[in-house]
Amino acid sequence: MAKRDFYEILGLAKNASDEDIKKSYRKLAMKYHPDRNPGSKEAEEKFKEAKEAYEMLSDAQKRAAYDQYGHAGVDPNAGSGGFGGGAGFGNFGDAFGDIFGAAAGRSRGGPQVYRGADLRYSMEITLEQAASGYDTQIRVPSWDECGACHGSSAEPGTQHETCPTCNGIGQVRVAQGFFSMQQTCLKCHGSGRFIPKPCQVCRGSGKIKKQKTLEVKIPGGIDEGMRIRSSGNGEPGINGGPPGDLYVEIHIKQHSVFERDGDDLHCQMPISFAVAALGGEIQVPTLQGKASFAVSEGTQSGKTFRLRGKGIKGLRASYPGDLYVHVQIETPVKLTDKQKDLLEKLEASLKEGGAKHSPQSKGFFDRMKDLFN
Question: What is the secondary structure of 195-217 as a DSSP string?
């Protein structure tokens, strides 16, 4: 019986990418694997068919021959022009392991390479520093080459040996039924090399942990919880892998006057009873200095005044936010007898004037009457 087209088997067009081929095969392998379809001859045949198609199309050389000559280009019995690669089930672990067992950054047959871990540094700054920007220095860990072993990780006078467990590959295969999984060698931790006598100074790491100073520029407008990334200043990679990054996480100290809400600021401003009743101009602090605004006659406690542009200009904002001043009328304390007498006379005078002097009280008592009636 004539073989089906490999692209048809995987449900792909001839211009399919390597990633498309891998994804399609993985889907079919999961669907028709004998472990999932016990006793099904049809599933076993489809599995073998998909495996053969993947083995041919995932190899660039074999795929080129197949695209030019068809099945004859990859048939091991077709003479020297063929590239081999039958659909035997026993070699399934290799093809399946390429998809599920391959580690990022590892070259085929070589030691496994790992990127270094990222580091986090928590920095606390003031609200003023967050608003205007801040340049500072921080001390962070660094790793220098060990002076005793010169980075070799081996005790001076000794040398590395090929790992006897993985034969220098850095990976070992573990068979689990029909599956053959690749795992990092536990003896050499993926390096492919075994150190009989690790360096006593660096304990076999090849590096010595130290401290270094970094310049950090905090941009103006930064907010709580934001992070600044310093590329390559994390922990070093393993087996020649790239280093990780350093992330400076910003935390803003609680301010004695202002509360931040995005790019806006809020503050509570106490004013005297007389200013609230008569009106007047008051001064309020801002991050840029003092600002003045007028309080209208008869201002009630809790009234909010908005000062445009007196907030913070955020990192991505075109204009600064606003400052919201919430006035709180301050009740006078520790009055003298004369002051008490004056207030009692004022209170009597206000009562004679009726409800027009107390608009909030009038509304409250009206609602009470409606409630009880």
Answer: -SSB-TTTTTSSEEEEEEEEEEE
